[in-house]
Amino acid sequence: MIHIFHAVGRTSFLLLVLCANQSRSLLAENEDAQPKKNTRHHVLWMMDADGNNLKELFTSPQYTSLGSPAFSPDGSKIAMDGWESQNGKNGQQAHILVINADGTGMKDLGDGAMPSWSADGKRFAFSRYSPYGVWMMNAEGTKRKEIEKNGWGAQWSPDGKMIVYSVYISGPNLMIYDPQEETFRYIFPAGEAPFRQFYWNSCWSPDSKSICTKAMTKKGKQELITIDIDRGVKGVKVQYNVEKKEPSEDSTWHPSGKFILSTIHSPEEDIKQFYEIDPTQKQKPRVWKPGQKIEWPRDICWSPDGKKIVFTTPED
Q1: How high is the pLDDT of residue 184?
Q2: pTM for the predicted model, two decimal places
Q3: Domain 41-313, CATH
């Protein structure tokens, strides 16, 4: 397994090589790398779709936690949220950060979380803690507009025609907003959603007909589901459910539409790993082989051409 760690101002990673008959560890580090206690930050990593060319792409001394990476439609930029949780800030003071796809040129667009690009790359849908709700803004961080004060976790569809987010109005539900017509519609009839909670960081299918999201059943079980947005309850398909080892909130649909990548707690290894899900088949998620040596990946996103993936790793 590969454990990836990072220390402030330095680049270092620890490779733990587990052999069948012998356990040994190999420390691979650059010439000045020297981890420091209590200074670990989240890191944004990039690797090829075949698992090769893993590299540290971005970390910030100010924003110690990074999450919800999202490629721009042309693949030239990556947006994410950053948190100053280790600098005396509370957990609700996230900012939206944008970098070039090579990890350079970071820009802070101000407060917000979970940025999602419009199809033309000119706007974001995102969430805010204060004032709470779902918002839109230009890609430069200007002209902020509130969409829904009760909404959370907005995701723009690949065709640019819809924004989906969770709401709690007469019970939990998922809302579809049309930014062109400025109209709203529920995915489930009001008060009839078959779940008691919908989580954030859902992802769209490339054809903009379905979403994948994490939800909690009325009995308290967490499930990873796909939903045909035009079929409501009949369009729900459970892709993964488990009593104790829950899936992460963030998943990413491959641009080909053939599979979904998520991070799920492995019962065999007792860690979170990349898992792939075929949304058309009735089979359990399986460990994604190109990333099977990565431990504790967090939020993930495919590049638009499906050739690369970016993901974050936690502090420890």
Answers
A1: 97
A2: 0.85
A3: 2.120.10.30
